[in-house]
Amino acid sequence: RMNGQKQWTRVAVMALLVLAVMAAEGGKTEKQGKKERKSDCGEWQWSVCVANEGDCGLGTREGTRSGVDCKQTIKTQRCKIPCNWKKRFGGECKYDFQAWGECDLATGKKNRTGVLKRALMDATCATTVTATKPCGKVPKTKLQ
Predict the structure, then answer these.
(1) Could you tell me the pTM of the whole model?
(2) How far is the C-alpha of 126 from the C-alpha of 103, rounded, in Å?
(3) Residues with Cβ < 8 Å from 92, sequence gap 6 or more?
């Protein structure tokens, strides 16, 4: 009697495994079908963030994509341009800057280099940038 119960349990477990595998396979083919339809659409291309007021703060960006069977080819998304980032290098790019270099007496200016630290979503940023500024007051050597 115990043997019959064990065998019955094994059959039931095997049946459940077969059903689970079939269900998993059915789910996969359904998902693949969705992916195929999705691939008819191109990747989203995003414009730069445009501030609602002034040159920083909350704003919007527009996304477009191509595709004959795409339900949506244009969409607008909210975005934010940080106000403390250097706008000269693009309001969507943040750089780590080195200390200012020595004053070039020929030009009266000094330079420093910045390395890209972070870029806002889909922004196109240079990996390194150079900032220049006037030297300011050059200390005069006192004659003794």
Answers:
(1) 0.38
(2) 25
(3) 48, 49, 81, 85, 119, 120, 123, 125
| 3-class secondary-structure state, position 140 | coil
Between the CA atoms of 17, 19, 21 and 23, what dihedral angle is there, to the nearest 10 degrees? -150
Q: Alpha-carbon distance 91 to 96, whole Å?
A: 14
CA dist 42 and 63 (Å) reads 11
Tell me the CB-side half-sphere exposure of residue 120, using CA atoms within 13 A: 19
**pLDDT by residue (tens digit) across 68-90?**
878 888 899 998 877 766 566 66
- Residue 131 and residue 105: Cα distance in Å, rounded? 17
> Which tokens belong to 88?
């000269």
Helix, strand, or coil (residue 127):
coil
